[in-house]
């Protein structure tokens, strides 16, 4: 699918949802919930609040522009979050990953121009974007690992109002696992 085929239209009216756009490193299927403390390994591209349909449309347009796999190289470990309590592995600078992040920010910001929703931690967008993969106990990546990001997803942070679980509601890319709920704009 190219960008001209992606859904377009005005921001939908509806209740706000909390979403995050990610590139999964571990296989993750649409519609299969996981605990908020048990995320599959992933690179976060943007966290935001918006009506569900508007979120799907905006992210679908951004990813449809170029949904080809993105090769990345894992860099050194760092401490993120409040008081450095979250251990992560940074991703070496990758222009295509930065471009994808920038497109997602632009599309989501366009939806928010209607006065609905917000982007979380705007200081971590654009030039402040520091792609990383959080270390999940024994599950982690290592410096020098070469990975291919080809499973891009929109994750609902509180499906049906339950903030204890997360669920991928749409997926794009060659590696997207679409068993379950809604298919992404690039879905089969």
> What string gives the helices and strands in order?
EEEHEEHEEEEE
Compute the average pLDDT.
87
Principal-axis shape equals globular
Seen as an oligomer or otherwise, the chain set is single chain
| Helix-residue proportion | 10-25%
The total count of helices amounts to 2
* Spans where pLDDT lies below 50 across 5 or more residues: 1-12, 180-188
Pfam family, one: 2_5_RNA_ligase2
Keywords: Ligase
InterPro entries: Cyclic_Pdiesterase
Organism: Sinomonas terrae
Detailed description of the structure:
This is 2'-5' RNA ligase family protein. It holds the Pfam family 2_5_RNA_ligase2. The protein is an alpha+beta fold and 188 residues long. The protein has a domain at 14-67 and 95-124 and 146-172. 16% of the residues lie in helices and 32% in strands. The chain contains 2 helices and 10 strands; from the N terminus they run βββαββαβββββ. A 6-stranded antiparallel beta sheet has the order 2-10-9-1-3-6, with helices on one face. α1 (52-64) packs antiparallel against α2 (95-112). It is globular, with a radius of gyration of 15 Å. The termini are close together. The model is unreliable at 1-12 and 180-188 (pLDDT under 50).
């Amino acid at each position: 699918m190219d960008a001209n085929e992606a859904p377009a239209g005005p921001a939908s009216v509806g209740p706000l949802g909390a979403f995050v756009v990610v590139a999964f490193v571990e296989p993750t299927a649409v519609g299969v919930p996981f605990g908020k403390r048990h995320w599959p390994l992933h690179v976060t591209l943007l966290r935001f609040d918006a009506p569900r349909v508007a979120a799907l449309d905006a992210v679908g347009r951004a990813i449809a522009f170029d949904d080809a796999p993105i090769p990345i190289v894992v860099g050194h470990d760092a401490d993120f979050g409040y008081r450095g309590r979250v251990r992560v592995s940074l991703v070496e600078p990758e222009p295509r990953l930065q471009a994808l992040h920038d497109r997602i920010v632009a599309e989501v910001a366009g939806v928010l121009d209607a006065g609905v929703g917000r982007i979380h931690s705007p200081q971590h967008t654009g030039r402040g974007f520091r792609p990383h993969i959080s270390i999940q106990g024994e599950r982690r990546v290592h410096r020098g690992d070469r990975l291919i990001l080809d499973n891009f997803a929109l994750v609902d942070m509180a499906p049906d109002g339950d903030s204890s679980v997360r669920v991928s509601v749409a997926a794009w890319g060659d590696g997207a696992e679409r068993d379950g709920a809604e298919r992404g704009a690039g879905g089969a």
